[in-house]
Amino acid sequence: MNVGDFIIMDSAIKRLESTFPLSQKIHFPTHERITRVGFKRQKEISLNFLCGTNCLNSSMLIHRQWNIGLINSLLMKKVITLGVGWGNYQQHPDTYTSLLLRRMLSANHLHSVRDSYTESQLKKAGVKNVINTSCPTMWDLTEQHCAQIPTSKAENVVFTLTDYRQDYDKDLTLIQALKESYQDVYFWVQGSQDYEYFKTFGRHLDGIKVIPANLSDFDKILLSSLSLDYIGTRLHAGIRALQKMRRSIIISVDNRAEEKRKDFNLTVIPRNLTVSEYVDIFNQHVELQLTIPFSAINEWKAQFD
């Protein structure tokens, strides 16, 4: 339902393939319960890796983004995390969540999380063997890579909105600023209801070109010869743009972008700006000086040598 999951999994699979080049990889869905066939496969595998963002929260009996229960801890091999994150800013993990995570997550491996907030929440749940590696989507954003990304404003822009973080007035301000600042404006549909929300802006959308909800279509415009920036509220669309050497400005709508700004110096700006404030930022040079924790990344990978 969210093409951002494909951006995350594209990078996660790349990490696992390079770490375990000779091993077969089997995929189990996190949003659905594992079936009888899945539990049978669990007897045949060596390790489980939980990949992706927003898998964890403080009340996992109620909110099952990772759709497991205590029975899974009896029938599944132990789990190692790769770039997982905590869904929102929340209270301490409750007793059930703490018990579930301690039973599910391996005590003999280091767990990779996307930010220091998730690291802190897991440790509060009693899972101490955790390191902050950033999201695997960022592992290739080296100093050499980032040096090739333009710092000045492009002629055109592709932007995103977020269907589950709607704010009509603030998003209208963004659209007006984009149309004022760029020659051609493109909208990429990342989430299942993004286009329905986009259409509510009616006449304000005149001249905006829509890119379909496929990662291949988004990659196509990012890899095109267009002079192009990315600006929007979708975090992983912004990181995908960086992967493809595009100047990227992410607008914060939740804890994921904020934590990446604080931990890794990702270019993230607030959402409550005026048109003129947005335009001023768009016209500024964006010097990308990321602080990716490569030593922690190497430590996580080295445990499988």
Task: Give a quick precis of the structure.
This is Polysaccharide pyruvyl transferase family protein. This protein is α/β, with parallel strands linked by helices. Helix content is 38%, strand content 12%.
User: Quaternary state, please?
Assistant: single chain
Mean pLDDT: 96
Strand order of the largest sheet: 7-6-5-8-9-10
What is the number of independent domains?
2
Content-based structural category? alpha/beta
Coarse shape: globular
| Largest sheet: number of strands, sense, barrel closure | 6 strands, parallel
Model regions low in confidence, pLDDT < 50 over at least 5 residues: none
CATH superfamily of the largest domain: Glycogen Phosphorylase B
User: How many strand units?
Assistant: 10
Order of helices and strands: HHEHEHEHEHEHEHEHEHEHEHH
Task: Please compute the radius of gyration using only Cα atoms.
Answer: 20 Å
Number of helices: 13
The CATH topology of the largest domain: Rossmann fold
The assigned CATH architecture of the largest domain is 3-Layer(aba) Sandwich
β content, as a range?
A: 5-15%
CATH class of the largest domain: Alpha Beta
Helix coverage percent: 25-40%
Distance between the termini: 36 Å
